[in-house]
Prior knowledge:
Elements (H helix, E strand, L loop, with lengths): L8 H19 L8 H30 L10
Helix pairs in contact: 1-2
Amino acid sequence: MLDNKPLTTEEMREASEFFFESFEIIQSKMPENSTPEDTLRVMEYVAKLATKQRSDREREKLRVSFGFSKKSDSE
């Protein structure tokens, strides 16, 4: 169920700190003369990639913890 309560200033502050830190990380790696829109577009792709990498890591942890790790070529 959606919560329709207004966001608090603390929630906005926390979200903006996360957003601008992420934005600055991406912007610092962008080519010269990139627009803020370019940076936002790249942020979307990076977020998707980071989500996939997190999922892959978690899946691998589960595989290892249940004994389903891949065998090496020497085995």
